[in-house]
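Incident review: delayed structure delivery

Summary: a single-chain prediction request sat in the queue longer than the usual turnaround. Root cause was a stuck worker, restarted by the on-call engineer. No data loss occurred. The affected request and its eventual output are reproduced below so the record is complete for anyone auditing the incident later.

Affected input:
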Amino acid sequence: MLGVLLAAVPFVLEPFRAQLAAKYLCFALPAVGLVLVWGYGGILSLGQGLYFGMGSYFMAMFLKLEAAAQSNTGSALSQFYGSSLPDFMVWNSVEKLPWWWWPFHSLTVALVAILIVPPVFAFLLAYANFRKRVGGVYFSIVTLALAAIASIVIIGQQGYTGGVNGITDFKTFLGVDILSDGVKRVLYFVTVLVLLAAVAAGRFIVASRTGKILVAIRDREDRVRFSGYNPATFKAFVFAAGALLASLGGALFALQEGLASPSLVGIVPSIEMVIYAAVGGRLSLIGAVYGTMLVFSAKTFFSENFPQVWLYLLGALFILVVMFLPAGLAGVADKLRRRLRARLPRAPERAFARAVRDPIEASVEVGSSRRA
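Output delivered after worker restart:
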């Protein structure tokens, strides 16, 4: 059902609205990761923007180097150093491409960085903390602090990261114009496929033995430890999985929006990602997608129609959800499903149960009903 709805979006909405939907889906990926991390792992991470930013900046670095090679910006320097410099480095009087930028001339390196660096960093960070039994609100503060530090470092190193403006103004991906409507539609469907794969992978993890152990750790970590398991390993694993999904969302966002900015890394976007998961239901992987779409749609609607008070209206929406929908949209769907089942006739179920208890009596009832 979710796949059908998402696949129909580009054909129903105008290109501008479809592009907004693509942006929303990029943020749905870290929300799905937070359902695994927070809902099933019991780890409230307030720093997922850090991993979203890693993915967006790794992809943006490759795209920017490709754009610099195709432009005349820094051509005089390129004759001396053998490589074109991004425009913001030229403006900040950087004379040589930093060594850690060089590998991102290769798309393969960029993809490996997107898929490997964030989850490995997240695993090491989480394992170091959970091995020392640093958890709960203390670990949440650690993740929040790291997101804030990363945002400050990016802004401070303007000559190498683009500063507060971020990395922008790239138009091609392997020579293909990513600004055309046709390519944007293809990127939208790529985002949908990645998101559906993430939901499927999340369901596999939840249904596996690892998922059951994670739930047990969330509820009674001490009992799991006494049973011979190491909770730190399982918690670090699910935290790394959430970081991977956030990184993929950031990379797709850089492709979709043509932007990697420190505003995507800091405290505000990290907390908003938690809100997306909470609105959808922190135990529902699909609910995280719907929650992200709902929050972003409300933000767009309020900002366009009530520009003076849209922040207050959005805040009121969050308060209402927390007060009256503690299980999120998934909780509402479960209540409707239970009510629908309660109204369905239960005669076949009673007949089946009676047949299990007394097969002879059930056969007599069937025969009498046929004669009637």
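Verification: Confidence is low (pLDDT under 50) at residues 73-82, 355-372.
Action items: add queue-age alerting; document worker restart procedure.
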